[in-house]
Amino acid sequence: MPLSSEQQAEIEQQRSVSTQTLRATAPGMEKHLYTAYPVLDHGFIRVVDYMGDDAAICQAARVSYGKGTKSVQNDEGLIRYLMRHWHSTPFEMCEIKLHVKLPVFVARQWIRHRTANVNEYSARYSILDREFYIPAPDHLAAQSVVNNQGRGEALSGEEAQRVLRYLTEDSMRAYDHYEEMISQDGQQGLARELARMNLPANVYTQWYWKVDLHNLLHFLRLRADAHAQYEIRVYADEICKVVADWVPFAFKAFEDYRMGGATLSATALEVVRRMLKGEEVTQETSGMSKGEWREFEGLLG
């Protein structure tokens, strides 16, 4: 279970208390505030704070005194213009702070996005829980034969069972030794900051992650992509649901121009022009490498 009954009760208590405020609020985000949404087998994401909304983006772009809203249509059009022309500063006016519980190996991918403020659970000070990410059988896959950092077909039968047994047994054995090393039952005990190095990369950690909307959308463009590793993609997918309710105009523009759109090189754009004129273009006549041509064909479907 991602949350204990005590933790769930604490969240419900937080959600039961409201205060009057003059600050701008987003109704779509208010319904998500503090709620923990399960991810993987023991993880979750939850919003603990936020600032701004669609109107805040327009306010910053227009540098206006009020909310910045001329009309709903004008605001949506402005946001789409900003997104279409890669303006970033107005989107930086919105911020979100998330509480995330995730496996360490996912955290090491996540932390590569260096444009956020992070405070992680300290295994020097506290003892980590006996919680490990063990993939569901349908997510146990062999190495891809065409992509050095991707997955191929799912493992099956005895091989899948063997891998699951290794993952579970090795995780439990490592944690048993971790507990024994820091034991205080008549022993001096190894320092927690040293004992933690024996734990596997699938042990769960937690952090607070605060980021502005511009950098969050960059994170989501990469990590909610179909090519991203499944274990981080499911976190990004869950965050997308929250962002869609928080800043619906901005998220719709993001879906259209970033997630659903594509950037073409000058060479690829010239190939499109030639195709529109009725010319049959092949990889050999395109001026592209085999890899570029394969990606180009993928974009065109």
UniProtKB/TrEMBL annotation:
GO terms for molecular function: flavin adenine dinucleotide binding; NADPH binding; thymidylate synthase (FAD) activity; thymidylate synthase activity. Keywords: FAD, Flavoprotein, Methyltransferase, NADP, Nucleotide biosynthesis, Transferase. Its cofactor is FAD. Pathway: Pyrimidine metabolism; dTTP biosynthesis. The keyword Disulfide bond does not apply. The active site is at R223. Signal peptide: none annotated. Binds 4 FAD per tetramer. Each FAD binding site is formed by three monomers. PROSITE patterns: THYX (PS51331). Gene3D superfamilies: 3.30.1360.170. The keyword Flavoprotein applies. Its EC number is 2.1.1.148. GO terms for biological process: dTMP biosynthetic process; dTTP biosynthetic process; methylation. It catalyses: dUMP + (6R)-5,10-methylene-5,6,7,8-tetrahydrofolate + NADPH + H(+) = dTMP + (6S)-5,6,7,8-tetrahydrofolate + NADP(+). Residues 1-21 are annotated as: Disordered. Pfam families: Thy1. DUMP binds at Q109, W110, I111, R112, E120, Y121, S122, A123, R124, R196, R223. NCBIfam families: thyX (TIGR02170). Catalyzes the reductive methylation of 2'-deoxyuridine-5'-monophosphate (dUMP) to 2'-deoxythymidine-5'-monophosphate (dTMP) while utilizing 5,10-methylenetetrahydrofolate (mTHF) as the methyl donor, and NADPH and FADH(2) as the reductant. Belongs to the thymidylate synthase ThyX family. Homotetramer. This is Flavin-dependent thymidylate synthase. The gene is thyX.
